[in-house]
């Protein structure tokens, strides 16, 4: 008999009501044996905005003016920063100031955003 999930645990369900499964994991970096999390993915899909005909109403909604720029995912790891475009191109050399500022955070992260002049 299987245990039912605790009330605080929430499964992501697909349309078939089966739990979603992630892809195969990469091996951990041997230089970081005690790293508590999975290794940095090579690329993430950006969170894209949805076009709507009017602004939503209510106190729970916020919106921002859409500026035109370059959609970027900034992958920051110890000793390495990569700035990737929406199409997966490495543009780190095109944004040296952003790369330097991201490295100065001093932690591992992925920033998903837009570079606007």
Largest sheet: 3 strands, antiparallel
Helix/strand-derived category reads mainly beta
Beta-strand content estimate: 15-25%
| Rg over CA atoms | 19 Å
Enumerate how many helices there are, as a single number: 1
Give me the side-by-side strand order of the main sheet. Answer: 2-1-3
Total count of strands? 3
N- to C-terminal distance: 59 Å
The amount of helix comes to under 10%
Low-confidence stretches: 3-14
Shape: globular
Helix-strand topology string: EEHE
Residue-averaged pLDDT = 78
Structure report:
The termini are far apart. The protein has one helix at 96-103, and strands at 70-77, 80-85, 109-115. It is mainly beta. 7% of the residues lie in helices and 18% in strands.
Topology of helices and strands:
Elements: E1 70-77, E2 80-85, H1 96-103, E3 109-115
Antiparallel strand pairs: 1-2, 1-3
């Amino acid at each position: 008999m299987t245990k039912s999930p605790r009330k605080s645990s929430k499964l992501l369900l697909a349309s078939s009501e089966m739990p979603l499964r992630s892809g195969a994991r990469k091996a951990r970096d041997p230089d970081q044996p005690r790293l508590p999390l999975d290794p940095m993915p090579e690329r993430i899909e950006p969170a894209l905005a949805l076009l709507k005909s009017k602004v939503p109403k209510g106190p729970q909604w916020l919106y921002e003016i859409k500026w035109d720029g370059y959609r970027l995912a900034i992958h920051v790891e110890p000793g390495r920063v990569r700035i990737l475009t929406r199409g997966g191109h490495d543009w780190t050399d095109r944004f040296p100031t952003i790369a330097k500022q991201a490295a100065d955070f001093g932690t591992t992260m992925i920033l998903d955003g837009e570079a606007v002049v």
